[in-house]
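The methods section describes the discrete structure representation at length, but only in general terms. What matters is that the chain and its backbone geometry are given together, residue for residue. For illustration, here is how one protein appears when written out as sequence plus structure tokens:
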Amino acid sequence: MEMKRLWICLLALLVLAGCGGNPTDVGVTLVVPQSAGSYSLNMETEWMEYDPSVDSIWCILSYEGEGEPLEFGAEYRLEVQTDSGWEKVPWKNEAWEDILYTLPAGESWAFPCVLSLFDYDFTEGTYRVVKDLEVLPGEAEPLPCWAEFTLRKGAAVSAEAPYGFGPMEEVPEYGDPAELAASGAVVFTEAGTENADAAETFLDKVSLGIPCQLRTLQSYYESWPMLIDVIYENGSFLWRMRTGGEITEKRFSYIVTDGADVYLSNGADWTATEAYDSDRAFLVPSGSGSGLLSVAQELMGGQTTGNTAWYRVWTQDGGKSAFLTRTPTEFGVEGSDSGSLYDLGDWYDSAPSITGLAWQADGTLRLTCETAEGGTVCYDFDPESGYLTEALCGLPTAN
């Protein structure tokens, strides 16, 4: 058994040179021979370098090949490279949720290594996140899979710029497109598109639940440059656009596609987007997202399969959301740590169908409904008190 283990580790080192590339070149791939084929495991950090001010290091575990689904827990450990070799970084209070994850072959899984959970003064240096995985059936000792990263003062990814971009407000109105492309932005000019693959990387991260940001610049002759940030965190997308010196903000819930372009929307798919006449915004300019359609289709499938919410709107600060289900009289409200589902049938015997909802400036929810007779009626719902009151339709609401 020891000879077999040594052979596997040597094989892993042989294939290491061809691994990584995106998102990092630092990781380890284990190639494990099986009677019916082989499979490989690879673990990487989202970025290669971080400023010591960051709190979370996202890791991506990929599983390829013909093996059975991989099962593992939430446990991981952090090690630091010293003159004596790799040393374990102590936890403040090590405790793990009793949960079992299942990763099918051909898929990836992401998790954060949270530095504030460790009893350690993080300074510049080389670190690695390690997960012990049982890659051989019946193996008594699991093999480690790890991802290395570096902490360096002044790195692009920091507490102030957690996704590698500084504030939009600090970018010059007529900034150099080449410099923006070098910083990771997708740039559209008369000469063509630079850094186009950053948009696909953004969607890949969204599919794994990794908080991330996409920055695009549209800079054409005889028009104001249009700088757009899309920030994905806590389950929603904050869309910010600057053009002509003015900044506009909206918050969206989903990625959708009509088969030609990719949009941000509050509908979980294109049917819901149209049914509720949802606000929408292009993720990239119309006609330039053909390479993103397959990823967007997969995201839409995940948004509608086994998902109660068919249409969702967020408060502007992203702290609370309200949603509609496929049951015409149902709506729900969710906060950071709680959620409730309601039905207008609990208030009215002949409950109208909900056709729209929006957050108002006072924190209440405006429900626009259609009666069985074809009329329109509106209600205001207070999530704090649970009170539903009839409202005068046509008055403006505030998102």
